[in-house]
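Weekly modeling sync, notes
Attendees: AB, CL, MP (scribe)

Item 1: holo prediction request
CL wants a bound-state model with D-mannonic acid before deciding which constructs to order. AB pointed out that an apo prediction alone won't tell us much about the pocket. Agreed to run with the ligand included and paste results into these notes for async review.

Input as submitted:
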Amino acid sequence: MNEPIKLNQSNLSQFPREISRPTYDRSRLTTGIVHVGVGGFHRAHEAFYTDLLLQSEDASQWGICGVGLREADRRMATILGQQDYLYTLIVKHPDGKVETKVIGSIVDFLLGVDDPGAVIDRMAAPETKIVSLTITEGGYNVDAETGEFDISNPDVQYDIEHPSTPRLVFGYLAAALKKRREAGLPAFTVQSCDNVQHNGDLIHKILVAFARLQDAELAQWIDKEVCFPNAMVDRIAPVTTESDIEFLRTKFNVDDGWPVVCEPFRQWVIEDSFSAGRPNWQNHDAQFVEDVKPYEEMKLRLLNAGHSVLGILGSVFGYQTIDECVRDDLFSKYLRKFFDVEATPVLDAVEGIDLDAYKATLIERFGNPSIRDNLARICLESSSKLPVFLIPTIRKNLADGGSIRYAALVIAAWCYYSDNHADRHGQPLEVTDTLKDELHEAAKATSNDRLSFMKVKQVFGDLANDERFAETYTEMIDRVYRDPDVTDHMREVIGGR
Ligand code: CS2
């Protein structure tokens, strides 16, 4: 076989016809969107919607400039830079069908660690209308106990004192908005694309709190001028593997250093509140609604929580991927019962959505055998995911007298996982979590105090003070530590005592 064709703008014409590619003039695009956090999800979601738009109408003001703030983003910056910011989206259908598409909407990339001033200037540039974010659940720097912006974070302190060379996204946004205000430019929209509840309201609150620490007038201006639409975002994008890169080489003889894999399903529900205009994403199935809250709650507490339920129980049991869990009848039954018995009763109804059908679709999506979504990805940073995905459901059920047993078993299994960093057979589990050490230490103390894990306040707040929760959780801890084969306990929970 010939040398594979490297993905870049000038080689695109040599790409095989089965790979669809941008036919719009990328050199004409200006970057109306600056996106912070270019991972698999952004590349499978916002950049994909924007590519569809650019392909179908003249929307040349809506190109995307990707931004990475941390050293960890260097690899993405380098690979995308070498490919003229192009990449291949590999959409894997459950029946094995695969669609491949080169996405062209990202046309530039800046790395904050190398040149913070360049990122601030780009955000402050007149053509920038939207700064969108995927900075993960933990990126919002919220104190779990108070729900407020955590100013004790040393990086926050650093950013207050070094406004022109910030480390965190809040410092960048504040510096850029300050420049715009001084230049008499309108504010951009700050659009969160993260899985956090009321993501727009949250970034609004914390950005204003941060700005207030630097400049009270700026904080007021931000509060008044910047729009922060809430949004629900959805598309499962597993970690790209070597075999995905290999697939493009062997099937098409093309070389993409970092393609993205995703499922066919996609959903984006957005509040229509933008400071300086927005792309016509509605022409490509994004939904603009007045109030996104019921949608985001449904998604966080069913899809994301469902992922965590399977991710944690499946990891301890020894499974590797979500689809493997779902193929096990016991696991899919547990998931469905968790949805029905604990998650749904505390959800608000969503207009136009049949929750039963939504839940059935989730189980089908999780079961997509081509996606092979790794449990390690799902469990990554559980300490910032569970407070958003699962703990609100537990709290609401405690208040309403509802069931908490499904979720309590998951937390007990997470304690075991954090204690042993291994599955029930002693096979090591790869644990990536900012609070890994704190969780490990707290979990280790379980033998002396069965509630010790619950004392990681950043995650659980005061949950252990609830007597009913403490009792149920202790029972689950006893079960899991007596026998880490969680399936026996899952059966027990499903059957009811
Ligand atoms: C997953 C999400 O890691 C996780 O928490 O639940 O990344 C999930 O795949 C996406 O939110 C799907 O939209």
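Recorded for review: The mean pLDDT is 97.
Action items: CL to compare against the apo run; MP to circulate these notes.
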